[in-house]
Amino acid sequence: MAMTAATAQIPLDYYARLDGLSGADLKLALHQLLNEDVKMLSYGSGNLKTWWGFYVTDRTADGHVCDRYSNDIFDFGDRGSSVSGMNIEHSFPKSWWGGAENNAYKDLYNLMPSQTTINNHKSNYPMANVDVEWRGNGLTKVGTRAGDPTSQAYRYWEPGDKWKGDFSRGYFYMATAYQNLSWSGDQSVRILTTGAYPTLQPWAYTLYLEWADDDKVDEIEATRNNTVERLQGNRNPFVDFPNIAQYIWGDSIGEPFHPLTTVKSQRFTGGATIRHKDATPVDIYASTFLGDRGSCTVEAAPGSANITVWSNSADYGWKGSGSKGPSSDLTYYNTDVTLLTPEIDLTEYQAAWFEFEHAVNFAVAPYSGLTVVARADGKEYPLHVRRWPQGNKWDFYPSSTVDLSEMAGKRVKVGFRYTSDQVEAPTWEIRNLRMVAIPGRAGVDMVAPDTQGGNYPEEYYTIDGRRLSSRDDAHGVIIIRRGPDAEKVFIP
After folding, report:
1. DSSP secondary structure string for all residues of 48-65
2. Cα 113 to Cα 30, 50, 118, 433, 486, distances in angstroms
3. Nearest CA among 488, 24, 483, 35 for reference residue 273
4. Taking the domains of the chain in order of start, what are their residue ranges?
5. What is the 3-state composition of the chain as percent helix, strand, coil, each rounded to the nearest 5?
6. What is the per-residue pLDDT across 341-388, written as a single tens digit (0 to 9) for each?
7. Rounded Cα gap, residues 284 and 435, in angstroms
8. Residues 77-86: what's their mean pLDDT?
9. Overall CATH class of domain 274-439
């Protein structure tokens, strides 16, 4: 059974601070994490605004809008342009916090394109099972809350079955990321409580937990999570770890949440990033790249155009570009060229990570052609970079921590892989790389007895943590574990 190209690495270093937490403490730690280093797009249409983001977060392969509220077909035009007949809809209505144009107002995890008529009927109602009074094109429903005769004066909305899990995980995100807001609206906000925990009413989170379990994370939702992260710098943890909601509102309150083991066998005791987070790191490689090549080398893949892709300057550091010629008549080339650091010896270290700054310009879509990799033992491993520039300006952004702990005990090169084609050839600038590590060889206590030497066997799990005997038993989104590393994979 062949896998598609839809893969995503779960950034375990990003979630390290959650280790051992549960209930209100876990929710607070998530709240703090989700608000760090975010860079929200402006609201509306135009460059670097909501519709500019929707163009890549909610555009299907054939150019249609992914409308989670209706079955109508709408097509995108130019990037940044609004789509006729559609609105920007807050699934968690903005009136609930008084309409202030804060981060919640602009957050792409809460914003979706919606058919206008359905958006108007949905209004600012809460989400629930409803006794149907109005139905929009076979998907979204509006009515009174089913089974609750005391709320007949109020209206609710119910999403289509195939989107109930998506909206539930979105509600969990909003109730966590913005638990500090003062909820307003009196009886118009009937799913919320006052205060940071639990924020959602018991009947509401109980229902949403059921919906999230029935409608599990699929490729569309996982891909959107990765794309939004590139645009605004944070993730929806309820997509990465669907069962984390149970540790906050469900049957696992009081049990410690462990990012490294929550969907795998307990026979692995953990990973370096968490186990050694209090140790003192030492510098093992650093370069500004500003007129300093940092002993880096450049390697072109077979078939790459014979042009200079990577260059170094005192003003910009390393610059990768697959376009050449005068600015008025640029030519784009098919390239695949990797900038490689010198080999870093991690054989005497048990954990390592690095940070750098980068800028991207002239990118017309989520620039999947720009990636960061590690090379060791003759193999190439993708690395997760949490913060990416917006793609159309020269501003430098910090990458945040990039975990190299899987490479502990090896000799490794870090590579900045640049690819382009005759349609898109962005410019990528990189400077101020600093790599640190924690001394001490990785002990065999970190792996099971049958996996000594770092040769971790693959383990397969459903998105909600059920162990699978082999990859052949899987379809849809699954999680593959290799020791402390986890990868999310879609199998048709």
Report:
1. TBHHHHHHHHSB-TTSBB
2. 26, 9, 11, 38, 31
3. 483
4. 20-248, 274-439
5. 25, 30, 50
6. 999 999 888 888 899 999 999 987 667 789 999 999 889 988 888 788
7. 6
8. 94
9. mainly beta
